[in-house]
Design goal:
Blueprint (H helix, E strand, L loop, with lengths): L7 H22 L12 H7 L9 E4 L6 H15 L11 E5 H8 L9 H9 L2 E5 L10 H16 L4 E5 L7 H4 L1 H10 L4 E3 L5 H6 L1
Helix pairs in contact: 1-3, 2-3, 5-6, 6-8
Bound molecules: adenosine-5'-diphosphate and magnesium ion.
């Protein structure tokens, strides 16, 4: 055994340290409003903690202000921690995007195409989280929808998780993302659609 490889007895402590570092680094990137830990919906918690039988991907939808975005950030933090259970595969890569910024970033640059490095990162990251997928209300161009399809298709083929929040249900995103993405999404999120209900927490806080 090479001298650098930790003894099995040290392995758990070593891995826990890597996990804590990865979780702390991600937690520092969470927007301040969504940084405090909250009690997650049981289905969201099952996805985040990689409970056996939990779906690969999660589509979290519901009305404005019920805590979708906050849940998604906190679920992602827990999902990262859960990646360190079992065989050590390194620190997971996570891409987090607001949909409007993502659609902007996918538009052709001066060279006439979407940057290849960005496409690759979106296709291969261990987790892709897109917040408020239908926020734009105005559909992005066919070009952007086609890039989105390439991202969803590649991730689906490789069974790589996608986390989405949305104020409309999965069947209603096609005016924004197009028919092809919607049809892929139906497969990606099969068994992983969670509805968050309840009152608007922003109004409750203001009252
Ligand atoms: N479980 C929770 N406990 C306390 N505050 C919460 C909880 N979930 C969300 N919030 C707060 O409620 C507000 C709305 O949450 P947000 O996630 O932005 O809603 P949505 O994305 O569904 O519109 C935010 O200020 C958020 O921090
Ligand atoms: Mg939100």
């Amino acid at each position: 055994m090479p001298a650098t490889s930790p003894e099995p007895s040290d392995m758990d402590g070593w891995r826990d340290e890597r996990r804590d570092d990865a979780v702390a680094a991600f937690a520092a990137s969470i927007p301040a409003l969504y940084r405090n830990e909250i009690t997650l919906d049981p289905d969201v918690a099952a996805w985040a903690d990689r409970i056996p039988g939990a779906p690969v991907s999660l589509f979290l939808w519901g009305p404005l202000g019920v805590g979708k975005t906050h849940s998604a950030w906190q679920a992602t933090r827990r999902w990262i921690a859960a990646q360190f259970a079992g065989a050590y595969r390194g620190t997971p890569t996570v891409q987090t995007w607001r949909s409007t910024s993502l659609f902007d970033a996918l538009r052709p640059d001066d060279s006439g195409g979407t940057p290849k490095q960005l496409m690759r990162a979106l296709q291969t990251a261990d987790l892709l989280y897109i917040d408020d997928v239908a926020a734009a209300r105005v559909s992005p161009t066919g070009w952007t929808q086609e890039r989105l399809y390439e991202i969803f298709d590649e991730r689906y083929i490789n069974q790589l998780p996608v986390l989405i929040t949305s104020d409309v249900q999965p069947g209603q995103i096609s005016p924004i993302v197009g028919e092809r993405v919607t049809s892929r999404a139906a497969e990606i999120f099969r068994g992983g659609v969670v509805h968050l209900g309840g009152a608007d927490r922003r109004k409750a806080a203001a009252a």
